Amino acid sequence: MLLDEDPATLIQHTIGNFNIAPDKQAVARINESLSTLQQARDLRVRESESALKKLSRTLTTLKNNYSETLSTHSSTAHASKIATLDTQKFRIAKSASDLEIESERLSSQLADLQARLQELEMQGVDGGDNARRGLVDDEISLKLKIFSSLGIQPEKSGGVNYNKAVISHGTQGNLNIVSFDGKASRYFNANYLWEAL
């Protein structure tokens, strides 16, 4: 009878009838896949945690920098500085405008004086040597008066010709000394003096 047989043999035959070897292999493969998947998930979790820590450190640094910037920045001082700079800008613009107007006026005056000087130079060189010498002296005196009225004092340095000029700025209280070497044209020297004014 069936029950007279050895139970181990019965169990062995029963196991053989069920053919569970493929199922065991499938379970082993599933366990291996689960283990690999768990390792991959653990790796991704560690990478995410590392990235999160790095971002947290960056955020802390940025917050500290932001707090420090806010504590050192004063909106009142900034507004005051902007207002001061605006005031300076308008003052400089007005001064530049005034200087431009004055420059145009002085340019016109210089052109008139140069025309007058040229007219006087072209006048009467007739007569003898004495008369001519008297005209030259009068011409030099006139030029010296014109230069003096502009704040220019011509000076002689060792010779007969004037080769140096002292320019005084009455409003600023400054003195400039300009030297001429005789190589430049009269037009250049006149412009040079004018710019030095």
Sequence-ordered SSE layout with sheet pairings:
Blueprint: H1 7-18, H2 21-72, H3 75-122, H4 129-149, E1 152-156, E2 162-169, E3 174-179, H5 186-196
Antiparallel strand pairs: 1-2, 2-3
Helix pairs in contact: 3-4
Q: Would you mind describing this structure in some detail?
A:
This protein is mostly helical and 197 residues long. Helix content is 73%, strand content 10%. The chain has helices at residues 7-18, 21-72, 75-122, 129-149, 186-196; strands spanning 152-156, 162-169, 174-179. A three-stranded antiparallel β-sheet has the order 1-2-3. The radius of gyration is 52 Å and the shape is rod-shaped. Residues 126-131 have low confidence and may be disordered. Its main location: cytoplasm.
Task: Give a quick set of tags describing it.
rod-shaped, three-stranded antiparallel sheet, 197 residues, kinetochore, mainly alpha, centromere, 73% helix, coiled coil
